[in-house]
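User: Could you check the structure of this?
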Amino acid sequence: MASATSSNRVSFTGSDAVSPDKVEKKRNINRTAKYNRKEMRMRLQVEEWMDRQLRDLYECEEDEEYPVEIDIDELIELSEAERYTSIQETLVDATQPTEEFIQQLLLKIQNYQKLKTP
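Assistant: Sure, the predicted C-alpha cells are below.
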C-alpha cells in the first residue's frame, strides 16, 4: 500500500519495499566496486611490469626467483627522495643498469597514488 508522509514522500510497505537509504547504499557500492577494480587493475599492471623488469635486471629466467622484493605499499608511504634511495639500495646487486627502471617505477607509483587518492 502507498501512503503519503508529511515530507511529500511516498513509501511502500511490504516485502518488496526498498527504503531510499538502501537505494543510496546500493549506488555507493557500485561506485566503490568500479573504483576498486580500476585501482586493482592498475596495481596488477605495475606489479607485472615490475616482475618483467626485475627479471631483466637480474637476468633471471621465468622459473627463477630474483633476489629482491619491492613493496609498492611501503614505497607509497615514503617521500619521493626516500623512494628513490630505497629502490636504489634494494637494487644494489643488479647485474644490469637500474636508473631507467627506478625512474619508470617512481612515475608508475606516482600515477597509482593519484588514482588511489580520491
